[in-house]
């Protein structure tokens, strides 16, 4: 069987940051903060975070800080909750949360909660359960969950549950593995997993595995490496991961590697990118693959990073 | 401007390219489709349009943009340059605009900057549709406008962008923002809701299983009157029948059908509401059965049936109660329910036969059918006894082993659980 070519992935991630001349990288630069989080977390899972300059990254992250307390996807752009979580996660990876004005960042996030408990992504008001997860994850890392109405936030998430046991972005929206991760993750962090019908959701999630071993994110879709993260982490949180064939999934992820130049793609023989490289490595981490550090399924950060945060005052 | 000098072209050339692009957008406001095309396609497109290659002027515009019949093609050769320039010019203008607003400068200066921001943000978004800051800049400026036409024009622009980037989340989100603004300021325009719904169907045609597009259509439901809901249910039927693997479209139908059930959840619902809903439910069940039998092995169709059957049992199985039964609660097995389940067992049996031809599809059909029945059993444990009775031990074993082949751990868990319950 093919092995994980960890060194090549490390090199690919380090190189990806330097290649700025493709159209893909130009149209992605508004979400550079997300890209940095994916790349850096993958590096840390492969125990190679030391190969990037901590000071350089941290000072760039801080150039994206906005006076409102939120972070932008890149320097000079508008802040959004999506990039605020990534920024906080990056600082957590480097053990640099102390440089944040925690009061201000947490007020920015808490300020996005609406009357019905839901969260907007920014001042323009789009609502999505992804933003609920982000707010809860971010405030939990900053130890400021008391700044929001957790009960209302949980009630809103529960109102997005469908008859198939899954969750969508707003009440009545179609179940989607990415949204399910967000809802289950938020419920896990706040200690509210009893709201999930674990057998029913586990059923829907394990039906995402196809004959190749790969997972899809919705019925009738092709398998995609990124769902190794969204589906798998959800199954772990609800304690139903034994309902899928883990060995076949490991093989599927390994088959999506570019064995020559590093990087992981969505499906075997497709072009690699940083997003799928992260989710492939994170999936292997959840599958306890040898040589990859353990990742926390709710916080999406290495377990040692989360332990460091939780056990420090 | 330091960064701009990179590459082989001079600074003047670059701005020229962006100027040309913006000039095309300005001079042809009826452009309704945009796309990125490979330079080799230019010759082909020109030939089709009846231009001979000799008379083509060899200037940059000709090699960079193609604009005929309100269709705009942008050469992939110039994309990177154009996108970088547009972003730079936009961010500079937006920064200046924000400074001016803060400093409360003269209104004519703000006006000029405002139109600069609108012009350049449009260019950026045509090239990089998820560039949130550019959409935000437009929202900021639009929120100061009070004529409906500014918002209608914005719907046109975002529609144009969707023609190239049908999955762009920021673009769909921007449309919702516009509609919300219009609803707040000029009352909810019903014809806009209808047009939006048609737009999703058109986009769905070219971009299959597009979650963001169908989510948008589901979002519209909250703005619909009950008449519109019924119309939409009719209108989307044909499309769904032609795209039986598109689960998102069936989810849209589920959303509409739940809207029809809503009045039944409140006290004071009339017998008429219930009869109507019952009729619609039966029609959908019959239609779904036709599709299941015609298009063998389609997961989306069987998942739709899970939803339809469970709701039918919950809402219409018990004649005497006004309130729908909670799932998991004991179901009163009246005659209609027994008949319904009998028919479902027949469907299961016929779906379990696997002929030699098209082996894979029929294998999938058997798996989906078995999983469907077991899924219902999880919600209604009484069903288990009926299955044992109707199918007999041998056939039931066959149903279970079909699932065991694909999902053995799930089955193991379920059987232990269900047998204990029943």
Automatic annotation (TrEMBL), chain A:
Its cofactor is Zn(2+). It comes from the Eukaryota. One of its GO terms (biological process) is root development. Keywords: Metal-binding, Prenyltransferase, Repeat, Transferase, Zinc. The keyword Translocase does not apply. The keyword Transferase applies. Residues 5-300 form the Prenyltransferase alpha-alpha toroid domain. Binds 1 zinc ion per subunit. One of its GO terms (molecular function) is Rab geranylgeranyltransferase activity. Coiled coil: none annotated. Its EC number is 2.5.1.60. Belongs to the protein prenyltransferase subunit beta family. Heterotrimer composed of the alpha subunit RGTA, the beta subunit RGTB and REP; within this trimer, RGTA and RGTB form the catalytic component, while REP mediates peptide substrate binding. This is Geranylgeranyl transferase type-2 subunit beta.
Automatic annotation (TrEMBL), chain B:
Signal peptide: none annotated. GO terms for cellular component: CAAX-protein geranylgeranyltransferase complex; protein farnesyltransferase complex. The keyword S-adenosyl-L-methionine does not apply. One of its GO terms (molecular function) is protein farnesyltransferase activity. Pfam families: PPTA. Transmembrane segments: none annotated. Gene3D superfamilies: Protein prenylyltransferase. Keywords: Prenyltransferase, Repeat, Transferase. Belongs to the protein prenyltransferase subunit alpha family. This is Uncharacterized protein. It comes from Arabis nemorensis.
């Amino acid at each position: 069987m093919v092995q994980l070519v960890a060194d090549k992935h490390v090199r690919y991630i380090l190189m990806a940051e330097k290649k700025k001349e493709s159209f893909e990288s130009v149209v992605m630069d508004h979400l550079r903060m997300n890209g940095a989080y994916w790349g850096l977390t993958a590096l840390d899972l492969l125990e190679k975070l030391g190969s990037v300059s901590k000071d350089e990254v941290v000072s760039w992250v801080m150039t994206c800080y906005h006076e409102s307390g939120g972070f932008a996807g890149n320097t000079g752009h508008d802040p959004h909750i999506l990039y605020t979580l990534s920024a906080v996660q990056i600082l957590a990876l480097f053990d640099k949360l102390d440089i944040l004005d925690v009061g201000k960042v947490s007020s920015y996030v808490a300020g996005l909660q609406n009357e019905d408990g839901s969260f907007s992504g920014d001042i323009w008001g789009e609502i999505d359960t992804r933003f609920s997860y982000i707010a809860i994850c971010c405030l939990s890392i900053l130890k400021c969950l008391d700044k929001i109405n957790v009960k209302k936030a949980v009630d809103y998430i529960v109102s997005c549950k469908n008859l198939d046991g899954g969750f969508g972005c707003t009440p009545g929206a179609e179940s989607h593995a990415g949204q399910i991760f967000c809802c289950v993750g938020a419920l896990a962090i706040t200690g509210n997993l009893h709201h999930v019908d674990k057998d029913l959701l586990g059923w829907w999630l394990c039906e995402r595995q196809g004959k190749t071993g790969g997972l899809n994110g919705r019925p009738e879709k092709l398998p995609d490496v990124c769902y190794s993260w969204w589906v798998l982490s959800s199954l772990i949180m609800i304690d139903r991961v034994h309902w899928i064939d883990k060995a076949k999934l490991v093989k599927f992820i390994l088959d999506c590697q570019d064995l020559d130049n590093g990087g992981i793609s969505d499906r075997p023989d497709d072009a690699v990118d940083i997003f799928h490289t992260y989710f492939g490595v994170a999936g292997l981490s959840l599958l306890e693959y040898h040589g990859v550090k353990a990742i926390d399924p709710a916080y999406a950060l290495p377990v040692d990073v989360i332990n460091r945060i939780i056990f420090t005052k | 401007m330091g960064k701009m000098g990179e590459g082989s072209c001079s600074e003047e050339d670059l701005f020229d390219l962006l100027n040309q692009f913006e000039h095309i957008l300005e001079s042809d406001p009826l452009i309704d489709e945009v796309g990125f095309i490979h330079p080799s396609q230019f010759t082909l497109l020109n030939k089709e349009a009846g231009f001979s290659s000799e008379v083509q002027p060899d200037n940059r515009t000709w090699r960079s943009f193609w604009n005929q019949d309100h269709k705009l093609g942008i050469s992939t050769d110039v994309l990177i340059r154009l996108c970088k320039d547009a972003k730079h010019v936009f961010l500079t203008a937006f920064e200046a605009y924000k400074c001016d607003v803060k400093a409360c400068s003269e209104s004519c200066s703000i006006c000029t900057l405002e139109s600069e921001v609108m012009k350049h943000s449009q260019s950026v978004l045509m090239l990089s549709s998820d560039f949130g800051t550019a959409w935000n800049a437009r929202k900021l400026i639009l929120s100061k406008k009070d004529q409906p036409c500014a918002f209608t024009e914005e719907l046109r622009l975002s529609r144009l962008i969707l023609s190239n980037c049908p999955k762009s989340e920021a673009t769909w989100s921007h449309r919702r923002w516009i509609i919300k603004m219009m609803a707040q300021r000029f009352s909810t325009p019903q014809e806009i809701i209808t047009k939006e719904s048609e737009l999703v169907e058109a986009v769905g045609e070219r971009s299959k299983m597009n979650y963001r597009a169908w989510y948008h259509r589901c979002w519209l439901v909250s703005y619909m009157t009950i008449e519109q809901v019924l119309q939409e249910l009719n209108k989307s039927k044909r499309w769904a029948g032609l795209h039986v693997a598109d689960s998102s479209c069936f989810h849209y139908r589920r959303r509409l059908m739940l809207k029809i059930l809503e009045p039944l959840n409140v006290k004071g619902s009339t017998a008429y509401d219930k009869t109507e809903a019952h009729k619609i439910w039966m029609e959908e069940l019959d239609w779904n059965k036709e599709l299941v039998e015609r298009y063998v092995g389609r997961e989306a169709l069987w998942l739709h049936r899970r939803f339809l059957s469970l709701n039918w049992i919950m809402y219409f199985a018990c004649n005497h109660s006004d309130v729908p039964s909670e799932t998991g609660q004991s179901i009163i097995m009246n005659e209609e329910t027994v008949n319904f389940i009998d028919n479902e067992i027949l469907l299961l049996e016929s779906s379990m036969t696997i002929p030699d031809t098209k082996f894979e599809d029929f294998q999938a059909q058997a798996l989906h059918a078995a999983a469907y029945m077991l899924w219902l059993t999880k919600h209604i444990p009484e069903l288990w006894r009926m299955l044992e009775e109707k199918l007999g031990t041998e056939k039931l074993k066959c149903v279970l082993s079909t699932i065991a082949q694909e999902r053995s751990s799930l089955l193991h868990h379920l059987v232990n659980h269900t047998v204990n319950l029943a």
